[in-house]
Amino acid sequence: MKLSSCIKAFVVLGVIVGQNSVGGFVQPLMNVTQTPTNISATNTTIATTLPPTNISATNSTIATNISATNLTIATTLLPTNTTSVPTTTTPLPTATVAIKTNSTTTAYSGPVENGTSVDPGISTTTDNSPKLNQSNNENDMIQNIQQFTSQNSSNQQIAVDALANLSASMTNVSVSTLETVLNITSNIISNIGNNFSVLRQPEQVAQIIQNFTFNLQLPPKATNVTITSSTTVIQVNEPKQQGDGGFKNVTYQPSNVTSAVPAVHVTIPGSSLDEALLVAKQPVRVSFLIFNTDVLFPSLERTNLVISAGIRNFNPAHLKQPITIQYSNESRKQGDVRLPSNRLKSNVTKTQCSVYTGRKWAPQQCQLVPSSVPPECRCYQLANFAMIVSTKILPSAFEMGIVTYVGCSLSIVTLIITIGIYVGIRELRNRQPTSFLIHICVTQLIIYVIFIFGMGNVTKRTDCYVTAAFLQYFLLANWSWMTANAYNMYKAFVKIIGGLSETLPNKCLLPCYGLPFILVMVHVGVAAIYMDGKNYRADDIFFESAYRSRHVCWLHLASLNFGFLLPTGILLTINIFLTSIVFAKVTCKRLKIQSSAHKQNTTKNFIIAVSLVINTGICWTTGYLTLVADNEVYLSVVSWIFTLLISTQGISLFVLHCVRQRDVRLLWLPRCVKPSRSESRPSTLLGSTTTKSTKV
Known about the structure:
8-stranded antiparallel β-sheet, 5-stranded antiparallel β-sheet, Chondroitinase Ac, Chain A, domain 3
C-alpha cells in the first residue's frame, strides 16, 4: 500500500486520541480497539510522535500490532501541554486488553482509571499458554510447528489443527517436508503418551500424514519413497501400468526389520488400483503408514501395531478383492497351547482382524485366514487396521476335549444299557416312574450322539442348521422331562393326597415334546429362515447368522440367550424349588425314623441329594456359573466341574437306577453274573414300588 494511506490513518488516530477531557482517554481508546482501522503496508516502518493535549496521564504508552506484511508501527503519545491536572497519589491499575479476529490481533497495555468499564466482548485475562508462530510461507510454517511440538508438551491440538490446514492446502510436498511432518507427528505421539484426551480426534493425525503423502513430489524416475521415524514408517508408491493397461499388486515389505520397522507385509490388489484409475482419473498414488504404537487410536483393546493403507481420491465402501495383511511379527500360536508347567491349563490366544471405527476396534469387513501361519488378515476396505490378540489362561481344551468325548461315549453306552434294562424287564417297565426315566434317557442319548457326530460339521450350511435345531429341541425336551420328573417326585413324597398318577406320564407327552417343538420352530422360522434368508449371500464371507455360530453348529448371541438359556433357566428354577421341597421332606422323615443312626442317616441323605440333582438336571447350574465371572481360577474349577458332570450324566443315571438299587440289580444282574444267594431286594430309593425279598 502507499505510504500516504498510512499517514492519513495516523492523522485520524491523532484526532481521536486528542480528546479534551481526562475521562475521555480510556473510552475513545476502547472504541479504537473494538473497531480497528485496516492499515496495510509492505516492508514499512512508521514511527510517529503525537503531542496530544489535555491528557491526564503520565508516561502513557499505546502499542498496536496490526496484521500486515512486515509492517511495524510504534506510536508514543507525549503528555505535553497538560494543564489543570490534579495530582494523584494512588497509582492506576493496569489492564491488558486483547482483541482477536480471523486476520488481526490487536493488543493494548496501559493504565485504567477506577470505575472504567471494559467491553464484555473483550478478554481482560493474560494468556500465558504457548503460542504457535504464524507464517504465510508453508515451509516456514511447518518449521514453526516442529519447533512448537519439540518445545511444548501441551496444547498439541494447536499443532494438529495447523498441520490439518497445511495438508489440505499444500499441493507440492517435498521429501524433506514430509520428513519434517513425520518428525512433528512423532513429537505429537510422544507428547500425548497415554493421555488420549489431549486431542479431539487422535486418529486424525494418520489422515493428515496420508494427505501429505498423496501430494508428495517423488524424485525423478522413483516409484516409491520410504521414510522412517521412531514411531512411524511411511511408504509412498506410484505404480506404473503394465503392458495390458492394468496394475500389479502393490506390496509394503520392510527391507530390514527393527524395533521401529515391524515385520509386516501389506498387499493391495491390482484390481483396486485399476478401479482407482477409472474413478480418480489421475495417476494412482498408494500410501502405507505403519505405526508401532496405538496412541493415535484410543480403545479398550490395546495393540502395538497399526497399519493404514490408502489410495489417493479412492475409498469405496467395499473392495472387490481384499487387502491382505501378514503379521510376520506375531509369534504366538493361535488357539489352544498347553502350558508346559501345568498340562491341565492352556494359553488360549484369540486373534481378531479389526478396523478402527472410532474409539474401538471392530471386525468390520475383515477376516482371519484359518490356520494361517503367520496369521494373515483379509480386509475389504481401505482403513486403519490392527490385529487384536488376547491371551487367557484357561482349562486346557485338549484335555477337556478328551474328557468330554470319553465321558459322552461311555454315557451313550450306559444309557443304552439303562434303556434296555427298564424296557426289557417287565417288572421294571410297568412301574410309573420308569416312563419318566426312559424319556430322560432317550433324549439324553440323542443329545450325546448329536454332540459327538454333528456339532463340528460347519462346512455344510444346511446340515449345520439342522444339527443346531435338533440339538436345541432335544435339550429343551430333556429339560422338560426332568422338570416333569421333579413334579412327579413332589407328588409322591410331598403331596401325599392323590399319590402317584398312572396317567401322569401320558399327560406330560404333549407339553414335554410339544412346547419345545413350538419354541424351536418359531425360533428357526424367525432367526434361521427369515433373518438369515434375507441377509445371506453366497459371496459374503462376513455373513453372520442370526441363529447359529460360525464355528460350531450351535446357537449364539440372541439365539442362545432366548432360545436356550432363558427357557432352561426357567425350568432350572422350577426344578430347584421342587427338589428342595422333596429333599427337605425325605430327610426330615428319615430323621424321625432313624434318629439313632446318625452316620448312616447322613450318608443316605447325601445319596438322596445326589440322586435328585442328577435326575432333575440341577448339575447344569454349573454351566450358568461360567457366565458370571472371568477369574482364571474360578473358570478353571467351574469349567472342569461342568464338563465332568454333563459328559458323565448318562453314567450317573445308570449307576443310580441300575446299580445302586438292589431290587433292580437283582433283576438284570443274573443274566450277566451269578448273584449271591443272600441278596434280597429292598425298596427303591426314589419312586420305585416295594417288592418282597427273594432268594435267587
